[in-house]
């Protein structure tokens, strides 16, 4: 059944921002907001990964903390929602499973756009069932500070040739912020002010997170 916007005969357009969010920061919020505007999305669903597939051998903060920080960072924006669907699923949080579940929930006519940064696009061929995945939703690929723009453009071109126009490039302002860098700063007792929302900073302080250095 088509999932229609109230009083309008147009199918919904939903952005999905999957991430480890360990912790969530302004880089994530900017790509979500940019995608919302550039692609006229009705909402952006933040989906914290329960078990991020490419970080199986890394230490990742407990899901409940990452989920709560994601909620704190997004709850002032009515167009942003957080989903616990990957937290509730056992095993690695493969995107193909998430898209299949969202397709069941929203119906075949809803436009689903998975939002990623340049790093994810560059390792896309290592994702589970990527051929099926690329056909099951659209992708919005954001530029990211520190990543080879040429390789990024080449990969997008290649995906166009192989699968048709399923992936859209999105230029965003360069924000040299990563969760890795934030964890390091906190561990070194440095400030993360202005790199992530104050509510998230408070949560980290209150719960004494990232005191032990992680990769
Ligand atoms: N500053 C940024 N600019 C553009 N895209 C970003 C930025 N930060 C994160 N992303 C994208 O957001 C998604 C989720 O990122 P993730 O939660 O892994 O954060 P991260 O900062 O890359 O974390 P880590 O440093 O721990 O790998 C990924 O697709 C990633 O490419
Ligand atoms: O499905 C996969 O094989 C897959 C492999 C790597 C990453 N992902 C998803 O991409 C998103 C960003 O991943 P990460 O590790 O950069 O936080 C997150 O939603 C992951 O579940 C998905």
SSE topology sketch:
Blueprint: E1 13-19, H1 26-38, E2 43-48, H2 63-74, E3 80-82, H3 95-106, E4 111-117, H4 118-122, H5 130-136, E5 138-142, H6 149-163, E6 167-170, H7 179-187, H8 198-206
Parallel strand pairs: 1-2, 1-4, 2-3, 4-5, 5-6
Helix pairs in contact: 2-8, 3-5
Adenosine-5'-triphosphate is lined by residues 19-22, 27-28, 31, 116-117, 119-120, 142, 144, 175, 177-180.
Mean pLDDT: 93
- Output the helix-strand order: EHEHEHEHHEHEHH
| CA distance, first residue to last residue | 44 Å
Identify the bound ligands.
adenosine-5'-triphosphate, nicotinate mononucleotide
The total of helices stands at: 8
Catalytic activity: nicotinate beta-D-ribonucleotide + ATP + H(+) = deamido-NAD(+) + diphosphate
Enzyme class: transferase
Family: Belongs to the NadD family.
Keywords: ATP-binding, NAD, Nucleotide-binding, Nucleotidyltransferase, Pyridine nucleotide biosynthesis, Transferase
Explain what you see.
The protein is an alpha/beta fold and 215 residues long. The chain is built from eight helices and six strands. The protein has a six-stranded parallel sheet with strand order 3-2-1-4-5-6, with helices on both faces. Helix 2 links the parallel strand 2 and strand 3. Helix 2 packs antiparallel against helix 8. The chain is globular and about 50 Å long. It starts with 12 loop residues before the first strand and ends in a 9-residue tail after the last helix. Adenosine-5'-triphosphate is lined by residues 19-22, 27-28, 31, 116-117, 119-120, 142, 144, 175, 177-180. Residues 19-22, 27-28, 31, 116-117, 119-120, 142, 144, 175, 177-180 line the site of adenosine-5'-triphosphate (ATP).
